[in-house]
Amino acid sequence: MFELPNSIRKCMSVLESAGYEAWVVGGAVRDLCLGNQPADFDLATNALPENVMRLFKRVLKTGLKHGTVTVLLEDTPIEVTTYRADGAYSDCRRPDRIKYVSTIGEDLARRDFTINAMAYHPVRGIFDPFGGQKDLAGQKLKAVGEPGLRFEEDALRILRLFRFAARFAFEIDKDTFDAAIQKNPNLALLSRERIWSELHGILLSPYPSRLAPLLDCGGLSFLGVASAGEISRLDSVPMELALRFTAFCVLTHCDPASLCRALKTDNQLRMLAVLYTKELQKPLPTDLLELKRRLRDLPMDHWPGLFALREVLFEEDTASCLKMLHDLEKSGDPYRLSHLPVDGNDIRALGVQGRRVGQILNALLEICLQDPSRCDREVLLAEAKRLI
Q1: For residue 159, which of 142, 184, 141, 139 has the smallest C-alpha distance?
Q2: For the chain, which terminus, N or C, has the lower number of CB atoms within 10 Å?
Q3: pLDDT tens per residue across span 278-290
Q4: What is the pLDDT of residue 118?
Q5: pTM (2 decimals)?
């Protein structure tokens, strides 16, 4: 028996008091069986959405066309979905239609993998018609029913399969694995946002290299991602998105800017991945002056991660560089334009306009990089006049 949050128990109680069934379903049941605390809880019920909405004061129509509403109890959002079976999938992405069914067993039959096709009730316990508990114990990922049909219905399940492998380090059932590889061309039909959502999860999993078989068969070649190569190194990269993404691009010979545009990621990730990649193409800085010059492009707080990335990808010893970085941080020496005691307004006040302002500021910064003692307002203004 598992302990459920009060909001979940209350929601189930309201549904059952009205004569309906209510079960906790999906990933929450899987995580409870693994001894982990679920991030959220989803409920399945035989109550139609309109009946659910009548029973609760605060309800959002978040997925009404798919039979889902979100109940707000104690400021906790709870997705409540009517038992359903999916109709035909004509685009390998979403069902053309759904139909409501009367039993929890019929509802579970439409789900992707056995470990996600279990239901839990505080009194009745676990309902597990497809052997999810056995597969959890055996650390196996197995499709519900016919694997090829599951992946034909929704190609995103292929990426979900490898995400669960990356998260749990489970073995993939042979029939399920073969079907995923066979159906991988359907991934190109998915929206790039859905692909990125799964790839994001894979990259931030303990074992992202579990994606290798899909890469080796060209599963993401439509995004410009090549075969896996030495992707096993990815598991040792610090679990930070920009670092993992950059390493993924390096190891699969993929341009980070192009992949970010293809996947429609945020600009921050694209900017960092491009900067990291540019730095990785250079040798390690050999002295403090060179390090300070390179800090003008990539901020200091990203360099420890960059050094860790170099150690994993290139097996370089970065201890001396890391010491230089720490010493520089303690010293307070200037290394960026924002550290100067003069700015563009000061230079324009001397009669300079346009691009020349930036050129002079950069020349002043170079003076301070070579001799931090000259980072003084009066000294730099005198140097600016001399340069003008």
Answers
A1: 184
A2: N
A3: 999 999 999 999 9
A4: 98
A5: 0.89
